[in-house]
Amino acid sequence: MKKIIFIFSLLMIAGCTIFQPEEATVIQPKLLKQASLPAIPPDIYSDRFEFFCEMLINENGDVETAKLLTKSDDPTWDSLTTLSLLKWKFIPATINGTPVKLLIRRRVKVVFEQPIIISLAEIQFRNLQTADSAYHELVKGADFTSLVLKYSISSSKQKNGMLGDVDIKHYSAEISSALSRLDEGDFTKPLRYGDSFVIFKRLKQLN
Length: 207
Fold this sequence. Notes:
- With 207 residues, the chain is of the alpha+beta class.
- The protein has two domains: 4-113, TolA/TonB C-terminal domain; 117-203, Roll (Chitinase A, domain 3).
- It has four helices and 13 strands.
- It has helices at residues 75-85, 128-139, 144-151, 173-180; strands at residues 4-16, 26-27, 30-33, 50-57, 63-68, 89-91, 93-95, 98-100, 102-113, 117-125, 162-167, 191-193, 196-203.
- The strands form four sheets. The protein has a four-stranded antiparallel β-sheet with strand order 1-9-4-5, with helices on one face. Strands 11-10-13-12 form a four-stranded antiparallel β-sheet.
- Strand 7 (93-95) and strand 8 (98-100) form a beta hairpin.
- The longest helix is centred in the middle third of the chain and has 12 residues, at 128-139.
C-alpha cells in the first residue's frame, strides 16, 4: 500500500489570549485529530522536512485561525497546508479547569507511515452520562443506527453516523489505539473527543 504523509507536532510556545494569574494551573491543548497534509512538492521535500505554524484554538478545541510561520517556495502548497491546519481538532486548553482560547506555535515534523484504513460510524454525545447510557444499550443489543438518530450531536447523524473509510492514524494516540483493536461489527467504549464523547463502530469495508 502506498505510504501517506503523517504529521507529528511538538509544542514550542503557547500564549494565552486572556489574563493569566501567576498561580493559575494551565493545561495545554491536546491534539485529537489532524487532517491530511497535501502532497509535498519534490523541490521542497527532504527526509527531515518540517515547518513552523501558529494556531488559535478556541474553547471548543476548534482551530479558528492558522498560518505558516516558515513558508516554502510553493505558495499553493502553503495555502493548502494552512487549510489543512484549520481542520485539526484539539482538547482545548484550560486554566484552573475552565476551557480557554489559546494561541500556540508548533514545530511540525513530516514523516511517512503506512495508513491504517477502516470503515467507521460514530455516535457523538454532549456528556459522558448520556454516552454511558447509550453504550449499555449497545451492549444489550440495541441497533447502532437507531442510537445515532436518538443521541448523536454530530453532523454525521444525517448519514446515520457513517464516516466512511478513515485513516485511524489521523486521530490521537488514545483513539487510534482503541480503533485498531476493533473487529468488524465491534464498537468502542465512550471516548473523550474535545468537549464531547464519541462511540465508534467498525463497519465492513466494501473495498
